Inverse folding.
């Protein structure tokens, strides 16, 4: 009998990147596989996508080094750049491309002695106000980067949307306009769209799109699921019933007695909890699937278990499979119950969870 197990269908990655590339047919792709491929496994995702993507985007240099150590030779972009000047020789030695978003990174380039230049993407803050060079400083950064022998020419350009998941929000067009203006006439590549830009804002595609969540078949847009965009969820999160117990009307179930049985019923105990990454904040009523039917979570999620109301007439048995999310039960729907986004649920899977690839 299996405890928490993520079953991952690799063909879904191939299907999803096909869908994304068809939406941006004139753009190359950086497949975003940071955070362990959004919980789906860094190396399996990279290997599955290698023949269909121009390169890979990661957040941490360690993620890039794992890819190189596993023999991945495709271009790799550090989406936030390197964090410290001592990383620059590592960036060069591993043939990584890097973002430069701040004075400290630029200074590190100017002070370094490197045997070859490194490919650099200048990150511009076009309106999200998280990372990136302020528009008024972009000219100065371009000049200094172009004058720096450690920076490969031409210089490339990147920015990121703050609200592209909101279909009508005016900020996105403003960001596109700022990006266009600041990079006009520059010979390097330009990249602005992550998944939501790729799916909703054709004007944002430029030379490279950077899909992440959509590769895994999950929607970047709230109130929509991956299936609404023709995407296939790659992950099915499963576990098993380890007990089926009678509860009497009035019984308070689990820690804190959060749920009180309103009638005599049967309670299923499922071998998954927050120690596996299932969110402890999930409220009563969050759906799960047992033997093809939806049943509600009842009572607090524990570290290793959670409880569901199977109903008084249930015939479910110990060992039966339980689906926490998957194609039949979109992770976006679970996220909505929990007050988060699908990104967080899949990324939060812990190392205790078995991952099986089919
Ligand atoms: C994570 C990330 C992406 C991918 O975003 P999704 O919303 O998952 O498609 C793209 N660009 C940057 C800079 C990122 O950090």
């Amino acid at each position: 009998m299996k405890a928490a197990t993520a079953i991952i269908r690799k063909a879904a990655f191939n299907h999803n990147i096909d869908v994304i590339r068809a939406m941006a047919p004139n753009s190359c792709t950086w497949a975003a596989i940071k955070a362990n491929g959004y919980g789906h496994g860094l190396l399996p995702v990279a290997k599955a996508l290698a023949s269909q993507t121009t390169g890979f985007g990661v957040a941490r240099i360690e993620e890039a080094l794992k890819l190189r150590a596993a023999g991945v030779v495709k271009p790799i972009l550090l989406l936030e750049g390197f964090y410290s000047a001592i990383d620059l020789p590592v960036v060069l030695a591993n043939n990584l491309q890097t973002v430069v978003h701040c004075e400290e990174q630029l200074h590190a380039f100017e002070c370094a002695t490197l045997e070859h230049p490194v490919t650099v993407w200048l990150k511009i803050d076009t309106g999200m106000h998280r990372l990136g060079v302020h528009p008024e400083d972009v000219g100065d950064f371009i000049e200094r980067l172009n004058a720096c022998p450690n920076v490969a020419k031409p210089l490339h350009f990147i920015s990121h949307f703050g609200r592209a998941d909101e279909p009508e929000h005016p900020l996105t067009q403003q960001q596109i306009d700022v990006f266009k203006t600041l990079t006009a006439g520059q010979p390097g590549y330009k990249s602005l769209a992550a998944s939501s830009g790729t799916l909703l804002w054709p004007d944002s595609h430029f030379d490279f799109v950077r899909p992440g969540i959509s590769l895994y078949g999950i929607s970047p847009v709230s109130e929509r699921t991956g299936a609404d965009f023709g995407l296939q969820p790659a992950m099915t999160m499963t576990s098993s019933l380890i007990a089926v117990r009678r509860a009497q009307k009035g019984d308070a179930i689990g820690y804190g007695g959060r749920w009180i049985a309103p009638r005599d019923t049967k309670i299923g105990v499922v071998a998954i909890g927050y120690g596996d990454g299932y969110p402890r904040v999930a409220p009563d009523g969050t759906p799960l699937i047992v033997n093809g039917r939806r049943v509600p979570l009842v009572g607090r999620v524990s570290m290793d278990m959670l409880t569901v109301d199977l109903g008084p007439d249930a015939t479910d048995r110990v060992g039966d499979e339980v689906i926490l999310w998957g194609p039949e039960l979109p992770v976006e729907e679970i996220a909505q119950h929990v007050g988060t986004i699908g990104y967080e649920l899949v990324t939060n899977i812990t190392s205790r969870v078995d991952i099986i690839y089919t």
